[in-house]
């Protein structure tokens, strides 16, 4: 229950709550510390604010609001988990880049009818000076925690090649990649006993292995008490086939029949006549690329890095060997060992500046020096090709789906572990669930 409310809160927090919770407040003389989390403190006013936010979030979802004391304990636990994550953000130095932060703040601004950050800032600061910076800081914290959770949880998710293969063979996987099946579907039903129905169903299944004539099979095996009927289902996507039937044919070969499928209206059996993969291929134009990278460092200033790349470029123009210069000078150890080779590169795998230069450099020509976030580069495209990447695309899609399935459970586990490993001292024992449980246990004894 506690985790569900926590998830719902993050999903349902409205703009007004974000703004109200970010407006500058000053601790009242009667304010007090109710919990210590790591190196931070939670005040009574923080708890009151969080309780109000939870009430609004639950009301917005039309969910029942728990009793006040339970709500306070849940709100406090939520604050503890938030502070514990922020402690980890500081520990691991998780940073949010300015562009991502501006985009996130602009989305919030647009929800309130503003088209620019400037007008949004003017409105908030007119309400109370400093509110805009507080809103911005809170959004920055949320983005940093999201980035932290993504890094921590994804590192816990393990998806093997066998997991991917099994998924792609499953009905869900077949539906996801657009596979189709041509099926014959027969049903054996009637007023006969279960034993008699099963006996006839076994006979029908055996006959179906050698015949696709539904009419002949129905005529041969139907009796006064038993009715055999069926249909050619035609070519259908796995997403269009009922899940309980799709599961029976996802692992059989063309020409084979399924096991008998007993359901309320009789016994079903399927035969797979044909299987078709998605005709749409993922053809990707790839580039065979090698590069030389010069990075600024503690001993190499940005100016020196630019001078070095210009010097290397001049030597290349005079005819010196690219691979030799890459092996000698490049700061990319992975490619330098292979003469600067990055192998076959697909669009979308490199930073935009590198990809743009790669696409606009003629084969066997050497680019002029250009800069990315990693430093100064020179690249050469030694070839290009159209490559069928359908299998790789399907594998990536399968890993993404399997990862999303595991993410929530792994996130819950990580948050519980984080909560358990974080130093927490709840000063107000009426809000300490463990203390309450221990007190109740002592009374029972």
CATH topology of the largest domain: Triger factor/SurA peptide-binding fold
Q: Which CATH-level-2 architecture of the largest domain?
A: Orthogonal Bundle
Taking the sheet with the most strands, its summary is: 4 strands, antiparallel
Strand content: 15-25%
What structural class results from the helix and strand content? alpha+beta
Note the overall shape: flat
User: How large is the count of helical segments?
Assistant: 18
Helix content estimate: 40-55%
Enzyme class: isomerase
Catalytic activity: [protein]-peptidylproline (omega=180) = [protein]-peptidylproline (omega=0)
Keywords: Chaperone, Isomerase, Periplasm, Repeat, Rotamase, Signal
Signal peptide: 1-27
In short:
This protein has 445 residues and is of the alpha+beta class. The protein is 53% helix and 19% strand.
Observed structural traits:
single chain; 445 residues; alpha+beta; Triger factor/SurA peptide-binding fold; Chitinase A, domain 3; 3 domains; four-stranded antiparallel sheet; 11 strands
Kindly describe this structure.
- This protein has 18 helices and 11 strands.
- It is α+β, with helices and mostly antiparallel strands.
- The protein folds into 3 domains: 155 residues, Porin chaperone SurA, peptide-binding domain (Triger factor/SurA peptide-binding fold), CATH 1.10.4030; 97 residues, Chitinase A, domain 3; 106 residues, Chitinase A, domain 3 (Roll).
- Strands 4-3-6-5 form a 4-stranded antiparallel β-sheet. Strands 8-7-10-9 form a 4-stranded antiparallel β-sheet.
- Helix 8 crosses helix 17.
- The two termini are 28 Å apart.
- InterPro entries: OMP_Chaperone_SurA, PPIase_dom_sf, PPIase_PpiC, PPIase_PpiC_CS, PPIase_SurA, SurA_N, Trigger_fact/SurA_dom_sf.
- It comes from Acinetobacter stercoris.
- Keywords: Chaperone, Isomerase, Periplasm, Repeat, Rotamase, Signal.
- This is Chaperone SurA.
């Amino acid at each position: 229950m506690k985790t569900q409310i926590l998830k719902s809160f993050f999903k349902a927090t409205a703009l007004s709550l974000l703004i109200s919770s970010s407006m500058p407040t000053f601790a009242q003389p009667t304010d007090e510390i109710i919990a210590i989390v790591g190196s931070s403190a939670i005040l009574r006013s923080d708890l009151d604010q969080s309780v109000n936010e939870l009430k609004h979030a639950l009301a917005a979802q039309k969910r029942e609001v728990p009793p006040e004391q339970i709500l306070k304990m849940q709100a406090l636990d939520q604050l503890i988990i938030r502070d514990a994550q922020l402690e980890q953000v500081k520990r691991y130095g998780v940073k949010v880049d300015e562009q991502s932060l501006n985009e996130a703040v602009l989305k919030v601004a647009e929800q309130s009818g503003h088209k620019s950050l400037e007008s949004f800032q003017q409105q908030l600061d007119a309400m109370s000076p400093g509110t805009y910076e507080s809103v911005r800081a809170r959004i920055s914290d949320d983005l940093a925690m999201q980035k932290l959770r993504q890094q921590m949880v994804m590192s816990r998710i393990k998806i093997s090649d066998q997991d991917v293969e099994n998924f792609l063979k499953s009905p869900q996987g077949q539906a996801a990649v657009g596979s189709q099946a041509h099926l014959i579907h027969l049903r054996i039903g009637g007023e006969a006993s279960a034993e008699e129905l099963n006996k006839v169903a076994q006979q029908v299944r055996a006959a179906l292995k050698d015949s696709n004539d539904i009419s002949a099979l129905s005529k041969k095996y139907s009796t006064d008490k038993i009715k055999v009927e069926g249909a050619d289902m035609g070519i259908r996507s796995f997403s269009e086939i009922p899940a309980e039937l799709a599961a029976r044919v996802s692992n059989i070969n063309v020409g084979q029949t399924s096991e008998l499928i007993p359901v309320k209206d009789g016994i079903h059996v399927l035969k797979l006549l044909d299987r078709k993969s998605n005709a749409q291929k993922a053809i990707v134009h790839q580039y065979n690329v090698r590069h030389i990278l010069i990075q600024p460092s503690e001993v190499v200033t940005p100016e020196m890095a630019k001078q070095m790349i210009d010097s290397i470029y001049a030597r290349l123009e005079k005819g010196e060997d690219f691979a030799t210069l890459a092996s000698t000078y490049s700061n990319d150890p992975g490619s330098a060992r292979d003469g600067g080779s990055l192998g076959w590169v697909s669009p979308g795998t490199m930073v935009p500046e590198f990809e743009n230069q790669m696409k606009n450099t003629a084969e066997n020509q050497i680019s002029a020096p250009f800069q990315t976030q990693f430093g100064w580069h020179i690249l050469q495209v030694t070839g290009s090709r159209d490559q069928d990447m359908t299998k790789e695309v399907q594998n990536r899609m399968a890993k993404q789906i399997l990862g999303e399935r595991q993410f929530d459970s792994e996130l819950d586990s990580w948050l519980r572990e984080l909560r358990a490993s974080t130093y927490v001292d709840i000063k107000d024992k009426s809000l300490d669930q463990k203390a309450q449980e221990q007190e109740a246990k002592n009374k029972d004894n």
